[in-house]
Amino acid sequence: MNCKEVQERIEELAHGFVPAPEEHALKVHLLSCGSCGQRYQWVEKMALEIAGKATRHPLPDELRRAIEKDLSRGAAIKSWLRPTLWVPAAALAVAVLALAVLFGRPERESLPVARVIQAVVGDYQRQWFDFRRGDPELARADLQRWLEKAIDLEEELPFKGNDEFLLLGARVVEISGRQAALL
């Protein structure tokens, strides 16, 4: 130990507040260093004089309870000010908020066109229809009935494309606004 460390602990040593392993290291330094040894002797002498002249007076119960209450309240407040408590609590709060933002969003009602794409693209076998050949209006009506049945689509969708493509097969390939092109 160096002189600075010993000087900081001399009063604790004189009053008997130093644990045994540290006390031994301090006393070894005091025996080898003259100035630290003299200071320790003076501090020890003062401590003995004060202890000899001091008298103990009992503390009134009310005052003791008030002091204990104030000390316990201060300890509770200080315990929350320690980073070991509030840093993990803050990290947990941030994680909970992030999860709430990521997974707590309500799902939107899908648009009819999006439901059309989902139904038609989802099952390749259902993409082909048995259209009435030669009558484009009946073919469109057949397609509309299938959409109503497959995805509960109640409104009529206007389709782009010519009637020949409708007769070959029906597959939604392009969405522009609320209109679908058929091939």
TrEMBL record:
Key words of the record: Membrane, Transmembrane, Transmembrane helix
Transmembrane segments: 85-103
Top-rank taxon: Bacteria
UniProt-recorded name of the protein: Zf-HC2 domain-containing protein
The organism of origin for this protein: Tectimicrobiota bacterium
